Amino acid sequence: MLQLYRQLPFNNPAYRQLAAWLTTPFEGALLQHCAVGKDRTGVGCALTLFAVGCDSETVMEEYLLTHGMLTQVEAWMLELLGNDLTAQGRQSLADILTVKESYLAAALSAIHQRYGTVDAWLAAEYQLTAPVRAALQARLLEE
After folding, report:
1. Which of 106, 115, 130, 141 could form a disulfide with 2 if both were Cys (CB 3.0 to 4.6 A apart)?
2. Domains parsed from the chain with CATH numbers
3. Which tens digit of pLDDT belongs to each residue from 27-42?
C-alpha cells in the first residue's frame, strides 16, 4: 500500500483531469470515486483540499474520516463472504479496507522529497499555480 501511495501523486492523468475540472467554472458538484474510496480518491481529495488552501493536518484528518465508513463496508462484506474466506482472504480484505495515516503520509513524503513543498507539486504536476489556486479559492470558499 505504501508504494502505491508514493506513486499516486505523480504523472497521474486522472488527477490532471480533476485539476482541469476544478479550474473550470461549473454549476453543481464534482464527484470523485474509485472502487473502495480511500486510495486514489483519498489522494485526489488531498489534492483538492490543498488546492483550496487546507493545511496538512486538516487534509490528514479528512482522509482518516474514511475509516469509519470502511469499517461498515468491511463488516457487511465479512457477513456476506465470511464463511467462504480463508484467513488470508480475511487479512487481504482488511488491508484493502483499512485507512492508515501512514498511507497518506507516504504520498506526502514522496511529494516533499520530489518537489520540496505541496505548492510546488500542485504547480508542477497539475498546473495549479498560486494565481490559479487563488481564483479557485475565491470561487469555492466562503468567508
Report:
1. 106
2. 2-23+34-140 (3.90.190.10)
3. 778 777 776 678 899 9
Please give the Cα distance from 88 to 9 (Å, whole number): 30
Lowest mean pLDDT across 30-39, 93-102, 125-134: 30-39
Asked if 122 contacts 51 with a C-beta cutoff of 8 angstroms, the reply is yes
Determine the length of the chain.
143
Indicate the average pLDDT of the chain. Answer: 90
- What one-character-per-residue DSSP string does 1-50 give? -HHHHHHTTSS-HHHHHHHHHHTS--SS------SSSSSHHHHHHHHHHH
H helix runs in 23-117, sequence order = 40-51, 56-64, 66-81, 87-96, 101-115
